[in-house]
Amino acid sequence: MSIYLRKHIRQCLINYWHIIALLLIILFVRFSCKIPVLFLDDSSKYFVPPQIIMNRDFFWILNTPNWSLLNRVISYYLGIIDANHLTHMIVLEKILGIISTILVYLIANKLTGGRRIVSVIAALIFSLDPALLYIEQTVMAESLFIFLNLLTSYIFLCLLTVAKTNTQKTLFAIVFAISLALTAFSKETGETWLYLILVALFVIAVVSFKRTRVYLSIFLIVFFVILLLRLPLMFYHCKQNGIFTTSPYKTANGVLGPPSIKYTSK
């Protein structure tokens, strides 16, 4: 190993020791012991075994309510067959928890003007939250939902602080819109989050219209990108159920959900 490389590594360790320590702590907390799988009664809304999907046709996923469309697609492609194979999903949720902690650090770092210690404390408080550690053990959509919310928030901060040229602002607005749309597909409450963000952007665009039209451009880009991403699903539901929405409902029976499924562990 050259002297220059050793000096460079040493300098990185000195400059980023707090980030390295943070990563080691959250890795130890999440992977130092056996990973239990907590399968709740509500979990069947977010996970459907591939056999049922394949028997009914893959598009059956789209024909059920928007109870974490992403979770179902992820479990389908991970090849999770039954409750005995759900460790893969839990590991994925823990990885999302680690990335979410990093995002909290980055968001805090931007909001505090680069105060690293404050950012590390904020990330530690978030990462060691008992509620967060609990939901990472369950077959639910919360870990994915939290990750996408934080990712969306960080991209929006970058849109406001990093993007300088019109091209950069357009690119960040498109990425922000994609992340926001995925957040809505990750959990049913994401729909409410999406509408609140769109309303907030519209209000900001109207209030600041005389002073600047930047926020109006951002709102229009975000609105139309989200609309383009959601239209295929809405047209599919309209064709199948006669309802132009991302989450079909049956007025007679309430929400048209997945079938009742019982999971057993060997």
Description:
With about 270 residues, the chain is mainly α. A two-stranded antiparallel ribbon has the order 1-2. Helix 2 packs parallel to helix 6, helix 5 packs antiparallel against helix 6 and helix 9 runs parallel beside helix 11. The protein is flat.
Summarize this entry quickly.
The chain is mainly α and 266 residues long. It has helices at residues 3-15, 17-31, 50-56, 69-78, 87-111, 116-127, 130-135, 142-161, 166-186, 190-207, 214-241; strands at 249-250, 254-255.
Distance between the termini: 51 Å
* Average of the residue pLDDT scores: 77
Strand order of the largest sheet: 1-2
Characterize the biggest β-sheet.
Answer: 2 strands, antiparallel
Number of helices: 11
Envelope shape? flat
Uncertain residue segments: 249-266
Query: Class by helix and strand content?
Result: mainly alpha
Summarize the amount of helix as a percent range. 55-70%
Give me the Rg, rounded.
21 Å
* Fraction in beta strands: under 5%
What assembly state would you assign to the polypeptide chains in this entry? single chain
